[in-house]
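ARCHIVE RECORD
Type: protein–small molecule complex
Small molecule: zinc ion
Source of inputs: curated submission
Record status: active
Notes field left blank by submitter.
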Amino acid sequence: MDHVPFKHKRTTLERAEKFISPDYFTDINLRSRLYTDQAGLESIQHYAAPDRVPYTKAMEGKYQPAHLGQSFGPVWSTHWFRLEVVIPSKWVGKEVHLLWNSGSEALVWCHGEPRQGLSGDNNRISYIISYNLDAADLQQTVYIEMACNHLFGIGNLAIVKTDDEKKTFTLSQAELAVFDRDVFGMILDIEILHDIAKEFPEDSQRGYQALYAVNDIINHLDVRDRSTYRRAQEMAKTFFHERNGQSQHTLYAMGHAHIDTAWLWPYAETIRKCARSWSCTLRLMEKYPEFIFTCSQAQQYAWVKEHYPTLWQEICLFIQKGQFVPVGGTWVEMDGNIPSCEACIRQFLYGQNFFLKEFGCRCKEFWLPDTFGYSAQFPQILRHCGITRFLTQKLSWSLVNKFPHHTFHWEGIDGSSVLAHFPPGDSYEMKGRVGEMLKTVKNFKDKGRSNRSAFLFGYGDGGHGPSEDMLERLQRLQDCDGLPKVKLASPDEFFSSIERENTNLLCRWRGELYLELHNGTYTTWAKVKKYNRQCEVLLQELEAVATMACVRVPDFPYPHEELDRLWKLLLLNQFHDVLPGSSINQVFQDAVGYYQDIERSANALINKAVACCAHSQASEQHEMYVVNTQGYARHELVELPASELAAPAHKKRRAQTNSQLLDGSHLVEVQVPPLCIKPISQCLVKQTEEDLCSQLRLYKEDDHFVLSNGQVRAELDSLGRLVSLTCFDKRTNSNQFILYDDVPLYWDAWDVMDYHLETRQPIVTAIERTRVISDSSNARVSLEFSLKISEESYLRQEIFLDACSPYVGFNTEVTWRENRKFLKVEFPTTVHTTQASYDIQSGFLQRPNHYNTSWDSARFEVCGHKWADLSEHNFGVAVINNCKYGYSAVDRVLRLSLLRSPKSPDPQADMGVHTFSYAIMPHSGNLQEAGVIHAAQSFNCPLRVVTSGADDLISPALFVLDTRQVLVQAVKMAEDRSRTIILRVHEAYGGSTKVKVTTPLPLLAVHPCNGLEEALHDWDQDVGIHFVHGDQQCQFEFTLTAFQIISLRCVM
Ligand SMILES: [Zn+2]
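STRUCTURE (tokenized, with ligand):
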């Protein structure tokens, strides 16, 4: 035997690399033997489809000859290919692949069925015609549906570069080949041994064992001599079969294909992405019965069911087998900050109901791997929807602070908690490589408390999912000494195994899971945010009014189907790249269309329901009705439209109203009970000398305007800035617009960086100085001014104060044509405090208003909903808005984020005219007692005025609650279509309370239920409902703890 030289680690590793390299020595290395024989196709025929057409339509197309090297486009177009496949007879009994690379995404169709996705991007270019070719299958016709886009859309890297509209896609490979499965396996053996040798620590015995093993295999293997293969395979197997001890960490490996429901591609392309990804997955499941794939988002399943019926059948089969596992429970993987509580509950309602109806199962885990932060209300929302577990990995993206746990109890604002897990490998796109496994174990922060973690493998974001090499790696490393054990498993098996450990050892994290990145997404694409807020309110209003109609007119057709359709559109647009504003422009065109559809349909249905309530066949009179869809009595101004007042029937009404606006509409002061429709004549507040209206003033003092109404006094300068407000004795410049530079490091539409705060530029150039619009002869006083933001951008603002209002309002119109600038409005106050409060989903959250620690300062821009508040003992200032979500508070200054101007991935983002409203509300006492929460709710849901046929019989208040501490968040007919009303309330102030509900409905029973509207039989003793029949009234009462959400089934 020759003397063996000392093994140099680097040269040995590189020797192994070259032996399986796709780039070096490919004429003689092992990879060169992967395909042993090749043959061309008999013919390639091409049809340029006019759109994304279904298969049957594609079959009617005119096909022309096409050839290798031919380019196809434009971007987003679809091309169909008919391939005549004639396989050489000598290949019978062999594994035969069709190799197709059009540099784009594609889908293989055989016999009219989608068979498998292809993609040039991840080198998924082979479609297995047969593992063992039969002589009867030598001739076949195969169709390929080519989509002119990459996995990540059409940009080179659309994250930093904008889309390349001129791009074309070239057919570089189209042939048949014989695949050598032994070679494929040995390539993986060598790769894994190489990786172990490379990744293990320098002083590791096991690492050197792998180094010598891989070297021996290469010495032994003659790639041209198959007789040497077996021994090489056994050498590898021997190494992989050297087992761990029992204490080794276990990875629960789950197949995964993150498919963004829209992002760098439109919704329509996602439908096809699902077919391409999931068909690949099914082919793998056929070959690997132990392979388990997790798949979220009911909407994507619904698309596949509609568009790909045969694929759907196959998926159903593998769901039954437990290999294809629905997960998440939601309609889509939504944004985690912006959607309302009710919208989040509907994500689960529609998601879980879909999974139950189609597959007879519900998901047990909330699955949101890629969303940009998670509301502190989620634990309760999940619990309320029957879910106790949560998985994400996105917090690993935080820029400043490392989150201290991977497996922990996550507790929300109400004290509910769920078991949460972050895969410690910091990715939902693992490939099964040795380095990823070692990283997972090394990173795992809960060692000693738990000994297992999730390992999500498969290409993602643009879909695609697991590939065969990943499964082969995981198979080899199931129990290989020195590496974590690998178990192919479902999320349920994983979480159950944690639950069997001692969960008392696990740490607890209270409050939100704040992502220290992507915090520009609370503001980007302002129109989508505005539509979202409006449509969330609108659908809740529609449900309330339609329920009133159902009660009043028993045969009123409650619009179940249309509500389903509209909610699903809204939920779809809450996907985590749509609502955050981080998609390409095409996506927003679709999204805005969906929102307009919701608005059109919901408004028409509301009018129909009101008309149904009010209609009297005997009467030809018309009457105006005030509609209060909220669960508390209101005292506000309503706007009577000019068109309605012009009608002869309203002559008397015109005389009663004293406040005419510029457009001819009138403002009148009304008082309205909760949840009711009432003729306006019964709501008008009769004016007396002591009335609030009569205290409304607008006058000039020196060069300042003063607005006051007895509750609020505001002093404004010529630039529209509040220089003084009730209880502020200092001179401040509140309502000061600020422009910041907004150039992030990388993710343009997503990120605003902390350094933007250092570029503060107050906007102080007036175009028109403050002037009076409406004086105190009216129920509203208002001023107007305009400012120049830059050479391209300007704004106009109306500042108003209503007779009976606790706040000063600002109606704003901005013409915005900036590049990487950020517009905010700033409210310096005199409040002394260490924290600010922010409205979130059915509750509020406190965050520091200082930068004491790195965790505090990383939250320089945060998400809030309808209001934010700075309060000290007995005094505070709230800022209310009707469509904004970004805030920052530092020391005494509260800022509301208004508009951004990122250029990627959508160069048009936020360009154009925007309208939005906000208000500043000074208050005494705390924010709860001062009515900030109710004022903000009303600000977002103005009283409606609907004209309809007159009738005396009008819906009385549907539910009256005896405390303002409990807010009604939904009143709707039950999903099961019984004569049952779902009443959902939450405790809004952050303290426990008892509430008594009075209703004119002759209720038969009231049961607590969950967010999915299932009765909770074991809950009665906690809620303690006392059900009393009175004279034409029912009452029931129950107790709520701080921020508790309770849903009730009220059976009629
Ligand atoms: Zn995503």
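CURATOR ANNOTATION: The radius of gyration is 32 Å.
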